[in-house]
Amino acid sequence: MSRRAWLLLPLLLFIGFVAAAAWRLSAPSDTSVRSRMVGRDAPSFAAAPMLPERPGVAAADLKNGKPRLVNFFASWCVPCIAEAPVLLDLQKRGVVIEGIALRDDPNDIRKFLAENGDPFAAIGSDPIGETQIAFGSSGVPESFIVDGKGVIRYQHIGPIAPEQVAEVMAEWEKARS
Amino acid sequence: MGKGSLMTSGRHAGRSAAFYQPRAWIAAALALLAMTTAWSEPATAESNRPPAPYAYKQLADSRKEAEATALMTELRCLVCQGQSIHDSDAEMAGDMRHLVRTRIEAGESPDQVRAFLIDRYGSWVSYQPRLDRETYVLWLAPLVLLLGGAVLVLRRIKVRR
User: Fold this and answer.
1) Cα–Cα distances in Å, from A51 out to A108, B85, B127?
2) Are strands A142-146 and A68-73 parallel, antiparallel or unpaired?
3) I need a surface site. Which of A56, A166, B77, B126 has the fewest CB within 10 A?
4) Residues on chain A touching B49 (C-beta within 8 angstroms)
5) Which among B92, B117, B119 has CB closest to A129?
6) Could you tell me whether strands A68-73 and A97-102 are parallel, antiparallel, or unpaired per DSSP bridges?
7) Do B52 and A129 touch (CB under 8 A)?
8) What is the pLDDT along chain A (177 residues), one digit of tens a residue?
9) Judged by CB atoms within 8 Å, which residues 1-60 of B form the interface with A?
10) Would the CA dihedral through B63, B65, B69, B75 be positive or negative?
């Protein structure tokens, strides 16, 4: 290359840098933290019953041969209200949903279920986030599909939107087979 | 802000009086704070439950507390993302501090506790990234750049001679 052409190199590098920065800035960054537990055995945990008349959720219950969707939620979580009708829809389609209520209280949970519907087969209580951390989850709502052998097969971060039901159902079918 | 700006206000007549009014600055700062907190509110919705026992309580053993604190400054808050769990008031950061303190109290080493969290959230959760398949560029890039620079400098020196 001639000396003249070499002189263009800094300019080209600069243009490349600006292009890369513009590309990264234009795409909204994904700040969600994915769990490393997907594909592995569900952690050992025991979430005591949130409501005395209903069962809680524990690791041993997840290995009974039937898949389930473990849903982390809370009465103080606004997106969980938006997700509630979708969970009811999934329940109608045959998905067994077990809830883990994060930092919550029985009275608030009863009120939440009365207002937003109750898709849960069981509700465990996670008062200080121990179960949440055990699953590698970092917020509410979050859902994990656990297969009949107790292996976590899928993680959904954030509320399940109506248009994501098909994706979740496909993962559910995979976990059943 | 405060004393310093009042003392200099007499000497710089060129600036408008409002510039040196601490009250105006405080009002502006408060307005900015109000704007940012209003923005971040939906993301940091929190419960009305009391924090985890060891979220704000130190361990009785000061040596263990020092170990836990050192580790907490190196662990990233998962829901605030720019802060360590030591610096964050988010509930999840409190839960993670409880986890760190109770595990250290139970006799685990800081490295074991860190490994437990990395096992769940990836090396992203630690501010002390280990050298592995995902981070080798981070570790090797400075060395490569330094070597490249050294080569360039050496060639320059040879040409001069």
Assistant:
1) 11, 31, 39
2) antiparallel
3) A166
4) 103-105, 127
5) B92
6) parallel
7) yes
8) 577 888 899 999 999 999 999 998 888 777 788 999 999 999 999 999 999 999 999 998 888 899 999 999 999 999 999 999 999 999 999 999 999 999 999 999 999 999 999 999 999 999 999 999 999 999 899 999 999 999 999 999 999 999 999 999 999 999 988
9) 42, 45-49, 51-53, 55
10) positive
Torsion (CA) A134, A138, A142, A145 in degrees, nearest 10: -30
- Residue A70 has phi, psi (to 5 degrees) of -95, 120
CB–CB contact A102 B47 (8 Å): yes
Nearest to B124 by CA among B88, B87, B75: B75
Residue A90 CA, distance from chain mean position? 15
Question: Which residues make Cβ contacts (< 8 Å) with residue B24, sequence separation at least 6?
Answer: B18
* ipTM for the whole complex: 0.84
Q: Classify A81 as helix, strand or coil.
A: helix
Q: What is the CA radius of gyration of chain A?
A: 22
3-state secondary structure chain B: CCHHHHHHCCCCCCCCHHHHCHHHHHHHHHHHHHHHHHHHHHHHCCCCCCCCCCCCCCCCCHHHHHHHHHHHCCEECCCCCCCECCCCCCHHHHHHHHHHHHHHHCCCCHHHHHHHHHHHHCHHHECCCCCCCCCHHHHHHHHHHHHHHHHHHHHHHHHHC
CB B68 within 8 A of CB B84: no
What are the residues whose beta carbons fall under 8 Å from the beta carbon of A122, sequence distance 6 or more?
Answer: A49, A54, A55, A56, A57, A61, A98, A99
Shortest alpha-carbon distance between residue A146 and chain B (Å): 16
Q: CA A130, CA B30: separation in Å to the nearest integer?
A: 36
**Model pLDDT for residues B34-71, shown as the tens digit of each residue:** 555 544 444 457 888 889 999 999 999 999 999 999 99
CATH class of this structure's domain A46-176: alpha beta
